[in-house]
Amino acid sequence: MFKQTLVATVAVYILWSIIDFLVHGILLQSAYQETLHLWRSEDQMHALLMSGVTLFFGFSVVLTYGCFVAPKSVQTGLKFGAALGVGALTGLGSFSYMPIPLQLAAAWFAVNFVKLTLAGMIAGLLVKEPVTEIGGSTL
């Protein structure tokens, strides 16, 4: 059901936003200060774009779970999210082409693994039926 997908997407977005604030806004602040030359200044950052990308990616994760993962359960959602988290290698891939400290890359990988695992758990908790249509269009 599409309503379950929307509710799960909002829950994932809120959770990811909180995690991002805590991790990037507080915990990794000193690492970002040490590499200040790599980042846009705050007045040049595109907060709306970042929020839109976060919302769309959360929707994509939840929709993929709803369409392709069975059986639907919290345990399956956790496994799905963890598999995405390991497969993404976010942070470690960035280290290969960005002059960032390995510790920062490892932190990005760890936080994205946690975020994707929790997103899978939320999808498993809230999406109980396969998603077969979006906005009246059959998949």
Salient structural properties:
single chain, elongated, 139 residues, 3% strand, mainly alpha
- Straight-line N-to-C gap: 12 Å
Largest sheet: 2 strands, antiparallel
Domains, number: 1
SS-derived structural category: mainly alpha
Shape: elongated
Strand order of the largest sheet: 1-2
Estimate percent helicity: over 70%
Please, what is the average pLDDT? 94
Tell me about this structure.
It is a single chain. The protein is mainly alpha-helical and 139 residues long. The protein has one domain. 71% of the residues lie in helices and 3% in strands. The protein is built from 6 helices and 2 strands, in the order H-H-H-H-H-H-E-E. It has helices spanning 2-27, 29-34, 47-68, 74-88, 92-95, 102-126, and strands at residues 133-134, 137-138. It has a two-stranded antiparallel sheet with strand order 1-2. A hairpin with a 2-residue loop joins strand 1 (133-134) and strand 2. Helix 4 packs antiparallel against helix 6. The N and C termini lie close together (12 Å). The relative contact order is 0.20. The mean pLDDT is 94.
Question: Could you write a compact summary of the structure shown?
Answer:
The chain has helices at residues 2-27, 29-34, 47-68, 74-88, 92-95, 102-126, and strands at residues 133-134, 137-138.
Describe the secondary structure blueprint for this structure.
Layout: H1 2-27, H2 29-34, H3 47-68, H4 74-88, H5 92-95, H6 102-126, E1 133-134, E2 137-138
Helix pairs in contact: 1-3, 1-6, 3-6, 4-6
